[in-house]
Fold this protein.
Amino acid sequence: MKNSSVFTILFSFLFVCFASYGFCKKSNEAIEYTQNGHINWTTGIIQAKGVGTPLKKSSGNASVSNMKILSDSKNNARHNMLKIIQNVRIDSIKKARNYATINDSVAKQLEEIIYKARENETMRKYMSDGTVEVYLQLSLYGGFAQLFLPEEIKQIESIKQIAVGGNNSSSQPSKTSDLKNYTGLVVDTTGIAVNPAMALRLLDEDGKEVYGSAFASREFAVQKGMSGYLKDLNAAKKNSRVGNHPLSVKGLRTTGPGNSDIIISNADASILRSSSEHLAFLKKCKVIIVLD
């Protein structure tokens, strides 16, 4: 009886893990769940579920009926995809709906992007009552990013090597002298509530921008986003996005109504500003934010 109870508890835990989060091995991914899908900020994929149900009165042609159900399920998924996209945070203030609802051109282009969303056919389900369940997927990068990323993010052709702040021989000389060797930036925000956004900002304690639209080149922001998001600090430090020797700093708190902009200490901001070398990896968006 005791063994049976233990088994029941274990089974229940596994069921919750699989049902709520897909697979336990994906626990390091930053996934924002919605009613009919999710936004995976780690992979940059939006997924929406759609359901199609059979008509009460069949046409008699099973093939035509099945095609109609499948078509209905995809249209339902597109409808749900639009709802999810409308709530995608572009920055700490605006969401995608703030652009699509006031700009007919953006709305039309978004409609075309959603219509081209691909189905993950391995997840398609046929129910015993004839209902069909499908999952469409859309990337936050590429055409979607080009459409919604702020215009302030421009193409940066080259980085000029300039001295910043003159001869600085004060705090943390060993760390600043090695700055040229850093290959990326990891921001640890565990312990504070951060909402992922496509165009985040990093600021120092005085509110001065350390990373944002002026630092990222549009080419790289469109290709892979201004930053990556993970839920494991060690995994972030080993991620290829930030190279083999990333600089790691601690996020102190968020600012802005959307809680997407992150404040780091003046000391860490000074390390970044001590050399223009950091502009090279910021330009290429070699930044990862570590969430709880």
